[in-house]
């Protein structure tokens, strides 16, 4: 979304700022960036904002952190109180300083994002639009497209929902730049597809696209894979070898799951980004390399910074152009578009003929949560094509092929086996499902999910980390 584009944000906006003139300027700059803007209400204190929230249901809340001191002495407590009364609205924290500690405090308490003063209206409008798509706002807040045609197939992506239209537009704008891109999204949403689309749509498309999975390479080999190695520097290094960064010279380097990179290597990656030079392992002289860096993660980068697993300075070097991929559950209108696309593709590969999906099957697919996102749906359709010979896909056929549903019963207990036993999932698995379902129910707002579960937000962060470690060990 850019200034002057055929887009708009509708809804109710609450601005909380003790500096009324500043609040008015923020509202004016936001309105100037849009064809149609939200209806703006201004409160000059945290308590004033609470009173407004009790009277009106808002879609967006932008709160200056220093103006919330009358609610509670600490940022997290004050923001937490505001979030609990926000009733599902998008909440943005605002402050004069871009301090990451203030951002972390506000976001731990449930704020969806953080903006620093002075506020750019165009940037703020774009950010709100992106957040609206990311968190699947159920109300009027959102991007209203102009008269241009809806795109259903774009650079490897399939989908015609408003969330995907926003993503296509964003990729088209971001691709032309050489600045680093930071892609976030759940597993299975297509982060690798997005990275390749950015490369293919950009000026470097004629050169190489080199991808490296930071989670799949052992830590002691990661540096040589990324930067290369000279002969004899490591055991088995029988000749000089280029790393991914050098191979991508002139093109694009994609670092998938960048949050899994060892901290010591993160400092070397930071130096590479700052200087544009690399040194192979065992080499002292630097080499000049010209690449565009795109990275991706399915984890919360701010949480990784708080846990000291990701360097803050590296994050801000990489997080120049953020792109977020929406989960499939937030774009249900795309489910059958994708299902038909995969059915046609795999039926052709297997030399079979299918007549599409029955109404009951379509309803069953659309109603599913798809925790594995597009990849899970893709695997299910491929399984259907392999298991059955053709005809119309029925709900019974889906039930037979849906292995994930059989191993993930809502109660945490699998379907009874033939001998009458039931296989009970481990306690941590059941706990994980309860917590993640609560987070999803509140549009990704951890603070509100924690309040509903009567636990603290920090407990959810801590639990998620322990689950990741358990899954890595299994």
TrEMBL record:
- Kindly indicate whether the keyword Repeat belongs to this entry: no
Q: Which GO terms describe its molecular function?
A: ATP binding; sequence-specific DNA binding
Where on the tree of life does the source sit, at the highest rank? Bacteria
Question: Which residues are recorded as modified (4-aspartylphosphate)?
Answer: 64
Q: Where is the Response regulatory domain?
A: 12-132
Report the protein name in the record.
Sigma-54-dependent Fis family transcriptional regulator
Q: Which InterPro entries match?
A: AAA+_ATPase, AAA_lid_NorR, CheY-like_superfamily, Homeodomain-like_sf, HTH_Fis, P-loop_NTPase, Sig_transdc_resp-reg_receiver, Sigma_54_int
Share an example GO biological-process annotation for this protein.
Answer: regulation of DNA-templated transcription
The residue ranges of the Sigma-54 factor interaction domain are 157-386
Q: Name one Pfam family in it.
A: AAA_lid_14
The UniProt entry, under CDD domains, shows: AAA, REC
**What are the entry keywords?**
Activator, ATP-binding, DNA-binding, Nucleotide-binding, Phosphoprotein, Transcription, Transcription regulation, Two-component regulatory system
């Amino acid at each position: 979304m850019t200034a002057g584009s055929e887009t708009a944000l509708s809804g109710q906006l609450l601005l909380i700022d003790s500096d009324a003139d500043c609040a008015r300027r923020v509202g004016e700059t936001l309105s100037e960036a849009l064809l149609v803007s939200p209806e703006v209400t201004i409160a000059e204190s945290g308590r004033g904002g609470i009173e407004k929230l009790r009277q009106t249901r808002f879609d967006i809340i932008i709160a200056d952190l220093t103006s919330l001191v009358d609610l509670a002495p600490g940022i997290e407590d004050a923001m937490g109180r505001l979030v609990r009364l926000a009733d599902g609205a998008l909440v943005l924290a605002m402050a004069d300083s871009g301090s990451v500690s203030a951002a972390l405090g506000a976001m731990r308490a449930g704020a969806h994002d953080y903006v620093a003063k002075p506020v750019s209206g165009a940037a703020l409008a774009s950010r709100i639009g992106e957040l609206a798509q990311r968190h699947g706002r159920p109300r009027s807040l959102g991007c209203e497209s102009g008269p241009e045609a809806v795109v259903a197939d774009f650079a490897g992506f399939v989908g015609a929902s408003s969330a995907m239209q926003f993503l296509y537009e964003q990729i088209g704008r971001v691709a032309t730049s050489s600045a680093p891109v930071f892609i976030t999204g759940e597993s299975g949403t297509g982060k690798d597809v997005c990275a390749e689309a950015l490369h293919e749509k950009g000026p470097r498309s004629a050169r190489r696209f080199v991808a490296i999975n930071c989670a799949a390479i052992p830590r002691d080999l990661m540096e040589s894979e990324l930067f290369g190695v000279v002969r004899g520097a490591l055991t088995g290094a029988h000749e000089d070898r280029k790393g991914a960064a050098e191979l991508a010279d002139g093109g694009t380097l994609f670092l998938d799951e960048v949050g899994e990179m060892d901290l010591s290597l993160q400092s070397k990656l930071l130096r590479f980004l700052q200087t544009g030079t690399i040194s192979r392992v065992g080499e002292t002289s630097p080499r000049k390399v010209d690449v565009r860096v795109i990275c991706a993660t399915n984890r919360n980068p701010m949480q990784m910074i708080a846990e000291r697993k990701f360097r803050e300075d590296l994050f801000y070097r990489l997080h120049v152009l953020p792109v977020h991929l929406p989960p499939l559950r937030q774009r249900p209108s795309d489910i059958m578009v994708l299902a038909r696309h995969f059915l046609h593709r795999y039926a052709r590969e297997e030399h079979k003929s299918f007549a599409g999906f029955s109404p009951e099957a379509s309803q069953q697919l659309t109603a599913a949560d798809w925790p594995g996102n597009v990849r899970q749906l893709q695997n299910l359709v491929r399984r259907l094509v392999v298991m059955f010979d053709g005809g119309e896909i029925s709900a019974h056929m889906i039930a037979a092929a849906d292995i994930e549903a059989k191993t993930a019963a809502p109660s945490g207990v699998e379907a009874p086996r033939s001998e009458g036993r039931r296989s009970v999932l481990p306690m941590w698995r059941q706990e994980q499902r309860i917590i993640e379902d609560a987070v999803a129910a509140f549009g990704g707002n951890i603070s509100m999910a924690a309040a509903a579960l009567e636990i603290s937000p920090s407990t959810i962060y801590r639990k998620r980390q322990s689950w990741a470690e358990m899954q890595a060990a299994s």
